[in-house]
Amino acid sequence: MVRAHRVVLAYSGGVDTSVCIPYLRQEWGVEEVIAFAADLGQGDELEPIRQKALRAGASQALVEDLVAPLVTEFALPAIRANGLYQGRYPLSTALARPLIARRLVKVARTLGADGVAHGCTGKGNDQVRFDLAIAALAPDLAILTPAREWGMSREDTIAYGERHGIPAPVSKSSPYSIDLNLLGRSIEAGPLEDPWREPPADVYDLTRGPEAAPDEAVVVEIGFAQGNPVSLNGQALDPVALIRQANVLAGSHGYGRIDMIEDRVVGIKSREIYETPGMLLLIRAHQELESVCLAADVMAIKRQLEQRWAELVYQGLWFGPLKQALDGFLDTTQKDVNGRVRLRLYKGSCTVIGREASHGLYAMDLATYGREDQFDHRAAAGFIYVWGLANRVWASRHP
Predict the structure, then answer these.
(1) Hey, which of 58, 127, 162, 170 would disulfide with 53, CB 3.0 to 4.6 Å?
(2) Known binding site: residues?
(3) pTM for the full model?
C-alpha cells in the first residue's frame, strides 16, 4: 500500500470518489485529504459537489474552471490530428485526463502535498491515464488508488459511504457509468454490456435520434485557420463557443452517436457508447479541408501518424516523448490548412458538399476537361513509359 500524509484527490462527486475521502483517512491513515474538482463544461453545479466533499471529510475542496484549456490545449490539437481512436472515437474523455492530472500535480505542489489520489477502478482506461501522466510530471509524488484495492462491490461502496455520512445516490441501481465534458459524453455498463443489444433510447442525451431529427437538412459552413476551426456559418467564434454551438447544431440533427467495441488499454474488449457531435463534425470538416491543402505524400504519412497519435492519447501517453515528437510533425502540416468546408446535416448523416482553401493544391486549369484545360496530355506517354519500366522488365523475365 502506498502511503502519504497530505493527499490531493481528483474528485467528481460520485460514489467512488466520495467514499475515497473517508477510506483514505480511516483505512489508509492519510492525515489530510484535499478534494479537487474540475469544471470541464459538464454542466453540473459544482458548488454542491464542493460542499459534498467537505461533508465527506475533505479538509479543503477546490473547484477550478478548466474549460478553456481543455479546448485550446487538448481538443484543438486532436482536431488538427484528426484524432480518432480505432478510426471512430474522438477521445473526448481521454483528452480530459492529462489536463486533470496536470492540475492535480500543480495543486499538490502549491499545497505541499506528498501524494495524489483518484477513484479509478483496476479495469478501466482512466487509471492508466492518471497514473502515467502524474508519473511523467511528478515522479516523486505518491499515487493512491483505493478503488483499485478495496475490493468492494458498488453496493458495498454505497453502504460504506452511508456509514460515514455520505448519502446514497438517488438510484442505487443505475445501470450506466457516464462521463461528460464539453467534448462529449461516454456511456457504458448495464445493458450495454451485451454487444448484441441495441442501446436503449435513454442512454442518449446530447443527440436526437435520427427519426426525431428535423425533416429538413441544414447546411453548415466551418472555417479553419492553420488547422484550427475559427468560424461557424461565417461567424468568427472563440474555440469554446464554437464547440458549444457545433455540439448543439450537430446533435439536434442526430449526428454524433458512436456504438463501438473498443480495445481498452488493459486488454479487455469493451462496448462503448459515445455522443460527440461537435468533435465529429469538426474533424470531418478538417479531414476534408486537408484533402485540398496537403500534398499527397504528406497526407499519406499524416494518416498513418494520426492513428498512432490517437492511440498514444487513448493509452495515457499524452506527456510521452513519441506523442510530443508527433505533435511537431502534425503542427508543421497545418500552416497552410486554411479555408472553409460546407457540410449537410440530415437525420444522423453528415455529407461534405463543398470545400475551398486559400492555399489549396486543387488547380482547376489542370483538373478540368473543358476548354480551359492546361494539362499537356502528350507528356503522359513518357511518364507512363518511365513509371512502368521496372514492371515491364520484370514481366519480360517471367513470361
Answers:
(1) 58
(2) 10-18, 38, 89, 119, 121, 125-126, 129, 177, 186, 262, 274
(3) 0.94
